[in-house]
Amino acid sequence: MSTKNTLFLTGTLLFAFTGTNAYAAVDQAGAMKLLKESKCLNCHDVSKTKKARSYKDIAAAYKGNPAAAAAVTKHITEPSQIVIDDEVVDHGNAKTKDPAKVKNLVEWILSR
């Protein structure tokens, strides 16, 4: 086997065994800043259920769903209502119109 083929095979195997992280380039600090500015953390937590599901639970619910990013984007950018403690309440939106910041936040949520 040539050196070129060996390098290709090694790279392929490394890729296969380590997997890929589609969210590797997420700006953690930017996502947290937007969560705080948007008051998302009043109801959500990264790993615990507060008034609403944790981001970890949200990510788990969407795992493997090809429509996940679109669904979460819609939920955080368009007005909607949710039920908390048997009460219908307005769900807040991300406090930005910047598509890059929204995309980063969505990827952050789904990477939990």
Short description:
The chain is mainly alpha-helical and 112 residues long. It is 50% helix and 9% strand.
Shape descriptor reads globular
As residue ranges, the low-confidence spans are: 3-20
- Count of domains: 1
Secondary-structure class: mainly alpha
How would you explain this protein's 3D organization?
The structure is a single chain. The chain is mainly α and about 110 residues long. The chain has one domain: Cytochrome Bc1 Complex, Chain D, domain 2 (Orthogonal Bundle). The chain is about 50% helix and about 10% strand. The chain has a two-stranded antiparallel ribbon with strand order 1-2. Helix 2 (about 30-35) crosses helix 5 and helix 4 crosses helix 5. The longest helix has 16 residues, at about 5-20. The radius of gyration is 18 Å and the shape is globular.
Keywords:
112 residues; mainly alpha; Cytochrome Bc1 Complex, Chain D, domain 2; two-stranded antiparallel ribbon; 5 helices; 2 strands; 50% helix; 9% strand; globular; disordered N terminus
Describe the SSE topology.
Elements: H1 3-18, H2 28-37, H3 55-62, H4 68-77, E1 80-84, E2 87-91, H5 99-110
Antiparallel strand pairs: 1-2
